[in-house]
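We recall that each integer encodes one residue's backbone shape. We quote one record:
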Amino acid sequence: MRRRIALQVRRRIIIPGALAALVLAGAPSFAEEPSGASIRQALLSIQSAALEGDVDPVRTLFAADLVLVSQSGKVYGYDAALFDLGSGFDSWENDELVIRRDGDLARVTFINRRTRSNLGLGEAAFRVLQIWHLRDGEWQLIAQSSARLKT
């Protein structure tokens, strides 16, 4: 009985103590950004650019060294990403947005649903993974990968 009580006391002290030590030590983790407001606003700006076909307002959101991997496995850079974004979309919605930040990096995931009738394409949905980097106080998209979802 005494042994069981001693074990319970140790568990109550050791486990919370170990967790506190990890927190105080600054254990690396992708913690959710408190508001994600800057990146959320950037994604809204990208949505507007896609719908309006005007990419000038979002040029600085894309890093010059951007790597974009499409669902087909093709790799694109800055110029191709902006060209595609500005080529006309009828609809563009992001759902299930999750932003996780670790220092000057943020991992962003969401489902993007879009329609592009000018190319004869119907609605398409993609699971998107983006990496954003805080550079000189501004968030820039440095990498994106997507996988097409069945609709």
User: Anything to note?
Assistant: The chain has three helices and seven strands.
